[in-house]
Amino acid sequence: MSSPETASERTVRHAFGNVLAFFVLLLIGVLAFSIRLFSVIKYESVIHEFDPYFNYRVTQFLTKNGIYDFWNWFDDRTWYPLGRVIGGTVYPGLTLTAGTLWWVLHSLNIPLSVETVCVFTAPTFSAFASWATYLLTKEVKGPGAGLAAATLLGMVPSYISRSVAGSYDNEAVAIFALIFTFFLYIKTLNTGSLFYATLNAISYFYMVCSWGGYTFIINLIPIHVLLCIVTGRYSSRLYIAYAPLVVLGTLLAALVPVVGFNAVMTSEHFASFLVFIILHVVALVYYIKGILSPRMFKVAVTLVLSIGLAVCCAVISILIAVVASSPTKGWSGRSLSLLDPTYASKYIPIIASVSEHQPPAWPSYFMDINVLAFLVPAGIIACFLPLSDASSFAVLYIVTSVYFSGVMVRLMLVLAPAACIMSGIALSEAFDALTGSIKFQLLGFSTENSQVGVGDASPDNAPAQKNAVKSDASENTLKDRTSRKNKKKEKERGKEEQGGQSSLQSQIKMRLQVLPLESSIIGVFLLIMLGAFYVVHCVWAAAEAYSAPSIVLTSHSQNGLHVFDDFREAYAWLRHNTEVDDKVASWWDYGYQTTAMANRTVIVDNNTWNNTHIATVGTAMSSPEKAAWEIFNSLDVKYVLVVFGGLVGYPSDDINKFLWMVRIGGGVFPHIKEPDYLRDGQYRIDSQATPTMLNCLMYKLSYYRFVDADGKGFDRVRQTEIGKKHFKLTHFEEVFTTHHWMVRIYKLKPPKNRIRGKAKKSKSKASSISSSKKSTKIKKNPWL
């Protein structure tokens, strides 16, 4: 057996390990940042998707006008004629973060534009999220598992999909805030430090500022606290970890304008208050138990529990009364759709119409977390060996996130950190077991045979060896009781013997856990291959699947790469060929981009806060041309924008979204009925389509002159010929169609011209009739 390690050697090894871990974390941060730059390398430095354009526009306003004007900004270019108060309806965390970064860089004389800062904010915070994952997993299972989890999170496709360069959305900073808040909670739970508890409340405040998903934190942590209380794990550390978070965190959350009194008035927060009361009742019981005798304690517990139950019943009654007064029982629509996956499709079609609110398909799990799906169960088992407060929180986190990701595909983003933590724990434990077996067999056998002997290390000889050690220690104790020096020698000898005994026991335990050498080497090789497969998949996902910006599309064919830049072409036309105060109507998906890139007023946008306004636009698109013209004219609309993919095969066009326009419009205006647009329950645009479908505005604006483009009117998305090919527009005129026919812009014909034309005709007819009458009269009686 090798000689025991001295204290100085342990200190050197510990310091070297910390330095090595620091450099590894640095490399993980570089990896997390660089793997998200494919979108910039392959395309250009541009903002992606739809929501990020609103965030970019708000950040521009913040850096130009300052924070006070930002809080009081009333935007009259959105939701015409209602407008929108930006400061009170937006989560300001992302905007303030990017604005602060821009201000710091300019203070250091680094003249980066606001757009550049916005493009690279998400990759920067992905590196921070990887480091936060290391800290959280280290508190759960040690630094080895932390490094593995941080590496996995830096490359996981689910997180890459929302944090590539240019993806300037709330999740860019919110995932870091989520993980860091969980780390500070576990850190406080392990140390019982009020300092970390205060930092935890501040981190929770930053999460509230950044994303509406903060309700996941304020419900998951109370569930864990309640679990610890029920399983008998209450301690003062648990109280310090939770109570300041609820009090200070709720006060800080109420300071965010978009949250306000919702922090204490909505059902999403009631669980934290109920657990807060239960925690104080339990704390009072433990306090009384420490100062009273057992008999008095029983009496006091009865009294405390009675009062506590009465208070809880009163609080619950008040909560039930408050909740019952709300038609949604105090829950938001998105929260209800998470608790009841069928709720949105039944009652709020505007939520169900969003593609990222749909349940994910099973293959998407393999696409977004890949091999982590197979490592997560092993990580859960490792958390129970042994089970601690921190590991129980990790298990609770993965279980809840798996459920929510199964309800809404967008929440795969919340699952990604939990899956990486569990997979990191599994990989770390597996590597420890396999490399420990290899090390023990290659280095431990020779020294053990020479000093201890194979037979002495067997489990059968262990009790005898323990008895021998005990007898020797007792004899030495009897001989050396005569002087203090002998007592000191006895203590030193006893420590050495105990150290030898413990090392012997650990050696025996290690031998029982040793795997065969060949199996250990094969296991390490398979784990390395698994990691290599994960890296290849993540790089492919980052380069191909998630790097393309939705505003610039590409396709590969035999002739090479084709770039479709129709969206920016259409917005540039609107910006340069329309008046500044012109209003543009489109489906709400394109509202943010139209306002940010075309600088024109829109009727609805991606905020979707007013269902009636969106239903009005959906009704106009579902109505015949004349009725749609009247609706748009009442809203002072001058241009209508539609997205059409039938020519180039772009599937996310307005024809594919049309049934959602019908459902949303019909939810407010009953004369719009979905069956009127279906033929025997099927959605068709060919010759079998219903007359209502063939005559609605969306059909006409999409397929107007389409037969002139390809000669036969074949829709490449729906894979069929359209039913109505030759028709004319009477109330709208085409003013612009992009190069690939993906965006089409129409202008409302002015009503005055048509009314005047009719008036002139009627006047001319009336004048001709009167003149003829007069002429006849004059001929008959010229003197009159």
From TrEMBL:
Q: Entry's InterPro entries? A: Oligo_trans_STT3, STT3-PglB_core, STT3_N
Where in the numbering of this chain does the Oligosaccharyl transferase STT3 N-terminal domain appear? 19-422
Cofactors needed by this protein, per the record, are: Mn(2+); Mg(2+)
Q: How does it sit in the membrane?
A: Multi-pass membrane protein
Span of the secretion signal? none
Query: Where are the compositionally biased (Basic and acidic residues) regions?
Result: 477-498
Q: Name one GO molecular function term.
A: dolichyl-diphosphooligosaccharide-protein glycotransferase activity
The pathway is: Protein modification; protein glycosylation
As for family, the record states:
Belongs to the STT3 family.
Q: What is this protein called?
A: dolichyl-diphosphooligosaccharide--protein glycotransferase
